[in-house]
Amino acid sequence: MNSKVVSTQPIEGQMPGTSGLRKKTRVFMQPGYLENFVQATFNAIGGASGKTFVVGGDGRYFNATAIQTILKMATANGAEKVIVGQDGLLSTPAASHLIRMNKTDGGLILSASHNPGGIENDFGVKFNTANGGPAPESITNAIFAETRSILEYSIAATDDVDIHTIGSFSIGEMTVEVVDPVADYQALMASLFDFDKIRELFANGFTMRFDAMHAITGPYANAILANSLGAPKGTVTNGVPKEDFANGHPDPNPVWAKELMDLMMNDNGPDFGAASDGDGDRNMIVGRNIYVTPSDSLAVLVANAHLAPAYADGLSGVARSMPTSGASDRVADKLGIASFETPTGWKFFGNLLDAGKVTICGEESAGTGSDHVREKDGLWAVLLWLNILAERKQSMTEILTDHWKTYGRNYYSRHDYEAIPTDIADTLMSGLIEKLPDLVGQEFSGLKVSAADEFSYIDPVDGSVSHNQGIRIFFESGGRAVFRLSGTGTEGATLRVYLEQYVPTEADHSQETQQALTQVKQAAQQISELASHLGRTEPDVMT
Ligand code: G16
Fold this sequence. Notes:
Distance between the termini: 52 Å
Helix content: 25-40%
Number of strands: 27
Strand order of the largest sheet: 2-6-5-3-4-9-8
Low-confidence stretches: none
Bound molecules: 1,6-di-O-phosphono-alpha-D-glucopyranose
Strand content: 25-35%
Structural class: alpha/beta
Oligomer: single chain
CATH superfamily of the largest domain: Alpha-D-Glucose-1,6-Bisphosphate, subunit A, domain 3
Mean pLDDT: 96
C-alpha cells in the first residue's frame, strides 16, 4: 500500500469547543480541513502508531466520506486497528462503550450532535480518550496547538474500505473491524436494568412514544424498546437515520420535538414520551400533560436510581454542570452523598467518574448518564425512567409532584438568543463582568442580589483549573440567573440565559414555569442591559 505525506498549511479556527470541533459541513469539506484536524489529533496524542481506535458517527451528511479519510490516515500513521460501526454508524454513548469494552486508545466520533445536518448545515469531529470520554482540555489544547503549526499529514493512497459488511478487513498493515453498532450497547443496557420488569410494564398496557428525530437512536430504540422490551408498534417514530435528519433540527427539547410535545400535552396522550438527539447522547423526558426539565429529570433519577439493579447499592455521588438547577443537590443532601458542580461540557465529569466520586451526572442541556460509559446517554436515561415507572407503578405527574413535595421545586428555563454578532455578545458579557463586584446588595425588579461571580472550577481529582465558565447571579429569594456563551454553535454567538427559582412550598408548585420565573427574568435582563445590547428581549428558543 502506498502512503503519501501531503504538505499542508495551518488552518485558522480549529479550536475544539464545548464538544469537539464543529463547523459548517462545507468548511469540513474543504481540501485538507478534516485531514489537518485528524493529523493534529494523532500528533497531540503522541502519534497513532500501534494504536487501536473506534471510529463512527451519527450518519449525517459527510459521515461516510470522513470515515474513509480517517481510515486512510490511521493506516498511514501506523495504527494497528480501527473498529468501525457498520455503515459508519455509532451513537456517541455506543462509541464510548466500544472504546472501553475493547480497551482501545480512544476514538474519533463524527457528529455535530443536536445541530442540524446536511451540506448546508453542521458537521463535527471529536476525539475521545481511552476512558471512553471526551478529551479533557489538556488534550484539546494540545490538538489546537498542533493545528497551528501543522505542515504535513499522512494518508494512504488506496481504495475505500467496505464499511457496510460486518467483519474484518485489511487496509495496508491495519485491520478494520466493522461491527454491529447496536449489539454491544444493547447488552450493556440489559445488564443495567430490569428488562423483565419493563417488559411486564408494556405487557400491561403502558404506552410510550419515542421520537428518534430521524437520527442515530432509531436503530437502537427499535432493537431495545420495540424488539426486546415489547413496546407496542408505533412506539418508535422517525426511527430511520437520515443524512439531513429529514431537514429537521435533532435537538430534543419542546421547541424542536414539537410533534412529540403536541401528542403528550393531551389527556389521551401516551403515558410516557421521550426523544433523543442527532448522536444519541441527549434525551427529553415528558409525561402525559407534564414536561420534565432536564434538571428535574436528573434529580428524580438520582432519587430513584436504587430501583434499577445497577444502582441498587446506592450512588457514590452526583455531579451537575453549573447552569443546571440545584434540584439534584437537594436529593444528594438527603441521600447523604457528595454533589459536584462542574463547568458545562461532559468532559468535566470524566475525572469524577474515573475516580469513583460520582455515579450519575447530568446537565440542563438534556444530558444524563452514569459510570457505565463516559458520555451522556439518551437511551440510558429513557430506560432508567422506564425501570423506575415499572417499579413505582405511578404516573409521571404523580412521581414529579411527589418529588417536589419532598424536595421543593426548582422552576427552571433556559433562554437562548441565537446568531448574535460575536462582538455584541462579548460586550454584553464583559459589561456584566465589570459590574460583578458591585452587585451584591443591589435590588433589581424587586430581587436583592445575594452573591455574584464568574464561575471557575478546580478539578478535585487532578487539580486542573478552568476559568471563565459563565456568570452566576444569586438572589436572596432563592432565584439564580446564569449567563454563558454557547461553545457548540457554528454561526455568530449564542447567548444562553439560565433562569431558576426555588420554591419550597407545595401550594406554589403548580405555577406555569415562565410565569414563576418572571421576576428572575426581568432582573437578569435589567442587570445585563440585554435589550440595549441585543435590541430585543425575547429569546429565540426557550427550553
Ligand atoms: C455538548 C456538551 C455538553 C454541553 C452542551 C451544550 O453537548 O457535551 O456537555 O452541555 O454541548 O453546550 P453549549 O451550551 O456550550 O452549547 P452535545 O450534545 O452538543 O455534544
